[in-house]
Amino acid sequence: MAAAGAELQGKYQKLAQEYSKLRAQNQVLKKGVVDEQANSASLKEQLKMKDQSLRKLQQEMDSLTFRNQQLAKRVELLQDELALSEAKGKKNKKSGEPSSQLSQEQKSVFDEDLQKKIEENERLHIRFFEADEQHKHLEAELKNRLEVLETDAAQHQAVVDSLTRKYTDTIEKLQNDKTKLEIKSQTLEREAKECRFRAEECQQQLKNLHADLGRRLDDSLCIINEKVPFNDTRSSQYNALNVPLHNRRCQLKLRDIAGQALAFVQDLVTALLNFHTYMEQRVQIFPIDSATDTISPLNQKFSQYLHENASYVRPLEEGMLHLFESITEDTVTVLETTVKLKVFSEHLTSYTCFLRKILPYQLKSLEEECESSLCTAALRARNLELHNDMKKITAVFEKLHVYISLIVLPSIKPEGLLRTNYSSVFTYIAADLHGFHNVMKGENKRGVSNLKWAIS
């Protein structure tokens, strides 16, 4: 429950960190939206000012148009006056040269004034046209920018709304998790109180049991001191002189068990010989065939070590055979008398050292094979499984070597292993052999070898 609470607390902290990160992003987006809104307001203000400028120009245009109309009327009036003047000039042709000169000067003045007004009107038309075109261009540009800014503002607002919804959901989820954690914390506190109460009760019971056992021990010691005049079980030297009881039925049963163990060891020896020989042949032909090419120095050394496997494996069978032959109907077989077990233990130690010696070469050879271009994916997977199983097999033999060394102790050093620990050591040996059996059964299923192991 503590682990679950810690996991929920970690999850809560992770969600809180994510919320803080999203909140910071939200602040950035909000600032961006505000900036865009300010920019949009500024552009709207500029558009408003441009509209005012356009209206002012429009008013000037209207004023110029009105003035142009006045000038046009004045020109017409002047033309009428000129025509009238010309008509009068024809009638008063005889009035003399001074009158004609005056009319000509007036006409020249009128023409010059008219030409100036026409040029001024043209300039005003050109300025109005240019101002109108500039205003239209600026208005279109500002409208486009306004549309883009409005689109960006809408997108930012959509992102803000989405993040707000997400933050709301996250906050609700965090609040729900917090509520659940609080409820679970309260439950754990109640359970802790109950456990403390039960622990106090157990401690009190333990104290009472200690007191009761102390009293019973004192009573037993008083009885032993009064009733037992001599007790030699405290000395291991005296215990070594005890003659064990002879039981023919027990001897036959032990011989039968030793025979089964001998058969199992024989099968094991055969299987190990086949296994190491198979590995040697495999190294010689894959991934490089030694008949046609030179294999790597690693595989050469590995093959050389594998070639020596018989000198380490066969003594196991010989040691177990000597142990079996030492158990007869007439002998008394206990751990203190099975001196032949030491020989088997030494052979097992030698083979375990051999496995430890070849294990690095075995692992490196498999890795080298996996790196070869000829190695398929399926074979690479099988090699990796064999890689792990070889480590397990070596570990099993190392444990078995330790346990066999322990049960050898009573025959060479009686005080090295207490009788109360005999059953525990044999239990560990059985468990180790079962583990070995499971490993090799997996190897058989995967097709590494077709050996049949007789270990149960």
UniProtKB/TrEMBL annotation:
InterPro entries: PPP1R21, PPP1R21_N, PPP1R21_six_helix. The keyword Zinc does not apply. Pfam families: KLRAQ, PPP1R21_helical. Residues 13-114 form the Protein phosphatase 1 regulatory subunit 21 N-terminal domain. SMART domains: KLRAQ. One of its GO terms (molecular function) is RNA binding. Its main location: other. Residues 97-107 have a biased composition (Polar residues). It is found in: Early endosome. Residues 87-110 are annotated as: Disordered. Keywords: Coiled coil, Endosome, RNA-binding. One of its GO terms (cellular component) is early endosome. Residues 139-205 form a coiled coil. This is Protein phosphatase 1 regulatory subunit 21.
